[in-house]
Design brief:
This protein has 183 residues and is an alpha+beta fold. It starts with a helix and ends with a helix. It has two domains: 52 residues, no CATH class; 100 residues, Ribbon (Umud Fragment, subunit A). Strands 1-2-7-3-4-5-6 form a seven-stranded antiparallel beta sheet.
């Protein structure tokens, strides 16, 4: 079985690589990964957000945003939060951020702001989603505010999360392509 698997023509390229070519391919792969990380970090600096791009994971914001829409976020500290802003926030002890609209804002003279959110497609506000005993969000909970979007581009991300085998298949194919491509 193993000999028939190794007899595949795609492994002929690997067998023909000398150590310098193999090292070159590994370095090429490392450059692709590091370039992607540098672009992500650059976006973080430009937008002021730790997560400058997010995918809408549910239908709670329909009709404004649909599942799979890709949102571009900014998070500038001097920009005030206002009613109608679409915020992306994180709740304590939850990994996945939530995309919802601000429906109420309370601000005092010292600049302390607390606010309430709700999904456009939801019947009630988000107090049921907040951490136990939390009735309002604060600026520290916000990852960013939506400034633009591209419809349905993030559906591939959702598919890869829903079907992990697809994710591993795509990553394997991309890795093989980078390692076997000689240019």
């Amino acid at each position: 079985m193993l000999s028939s698997l190794l007899g595949l023509s795609c492994f002929d390229d690997i067998r023909r690589l000398n150590w310098r070519q193999g090292l070159y391919q590994v370095l090429n792969f490392a450059m692709v990964v590091s370039s992607a990380l540098m672009m992500w970090k650059g976006l973080m600096v430009l937008t002021g957000s730790e997560s400058p791009i997010v995918v809408v994971l549910s239908g709670s914001m329909e009709p404004a945003f649909h599942r799979g829409d890709l949102l571009f976020l900014t998070h500038y500290e001097d920009s005030p939060i206002r009613v109608g802003d679409i915020t992306v926030f994180r709740i304590e002890n939850r990994d996945i951020p939530i995309v919802h609209r601000v429906i109420k804002v309370h601000e005092n003279n010292t600049g302390y702001v607390k606010f309430l959110t709700k999904g456009d497609n939801n019947k009630v506000d988000d107090r049921g989603l907040y951490a136990e005993g939390q009735l309002w969000l604060e600026k520290k909970d916000v990852l960013g505010r939506a400034r633009g979007f591209v419809p349905y581009v993030g559906i591939f991300t959702i598919l890869m999360n829903d079907y992990p085998q697809l994710k591993y298949c795509v990553l394997t194919l991309l890795g093989l392509f980078v390692l076997l491509h000689r240019e």
